[in-house]
Design brief:
Helices cover about 95% and strands about 0% of the residues. It contains 4 helices and no strands. The radius of gyration is 39 Å and the shape is elongated.
């Protein structure tokens, strides 16, 4: 009973306090409003200024991010361009070396030429391995460039719902994005062309291997069997 009475007294005290507070606010508004209007006006003006400054700062930060991202993607594009140039140069070398292997196979045979033929076969395999290394570098460059373009496009999509100035900045960047995006397709196309040339080169190398097997006597047979065994071990 005493506990309930204590709660009731506390509630009545809070109600009286709240009533007094409301009454004081009402009196202030009724009697002092001419003085409150300038204060409220100033406070609202300050709030507007701060809001504009925050929007301007956010706009500037997003524009700087877009500019920075463009620079990064352009750096990745230059890297992918170098990878394309390397693959294109490899493709020319592979084409020439394939012709040389075919000519060697047609003009050179016999156990007396075993050393020359096997050296050329070994060099051909090393050349193919080198090309594969360049291909992996090109694939890595292509993936990095594609990821960079996607990230940049994400920022541009966000900017499309921003301020007019930010939208204009994003729109001016889209032409650059289209140019950079073309670099991804360029790398893929060169990889495909080089793959085709490597296939022809590997076929010429395989024909030289079989040529050594059939024309270089017992040494050619032993070399061929050893080569096949190493191939089976790598595959296993």
């Amino acid at each position: 009973m005493q506990k309930a009475l204590g709660c009731l007294m506390g509630a009545l005290f809070a109600l009286v306090l709240l009533s007094s507070l409301v009454e004081g606010v009402v009196r202030l508004l009724v009697h002092e409003w001419p003085y409150l209007v300038p204060v409220v006006t100033v406070l609202l003006a300050i709030d507007v200024v701060f809001r504009r400054r925050r929007r301007a700062a956010a706009e500037q930060a997003e524009m700087a991010t877009i500019t920075q991202q463009v620079a990064e993607v352009e750096r990745l594009r230059k890297r992918s361009d170098r990878a394309v140039q390397v693959l294109a140069a490899d493709r020319v070398v592979l084409e020439r070396k394939a012709r040389e292997l075919d000519h060697l196979r047609r003009t050179t045979r016999g156990e007396v030429n075993f050393q020359l033929l096997t050296q050329r076969h070994h060099a051909s395999r090393l050349l193919a391995d080198e090309w594969h290394g360049h291909k992996h570098q090109a694939i890595g460059s292509k993936r990095e460039l594609a990821a960079g373009v996607r990230k940049l496009e994400h920022h541009l999509s966000k900017a499309a719902s921003g301020t007019p100035r930010l939208r204009r900045h994003a729109e001016a960047t889209r032409t650059t994005v289209r140019t950079l995006s073309a670099g991804v397709n360029q790398v893929q196309q060169e990889i495909a062309r080089s793959n085709n040339e490597l296939t022809r080169f590997n076929q010429a190398t395989a024909k030289l291997r079989d040529h050594i097997h059939t024309t270089c006597g017992p040494r050619g047979n032993r070399w061929y069997e050893n080569l096949q065994e190493r191939t089976r071990q790598r595959a296993g």
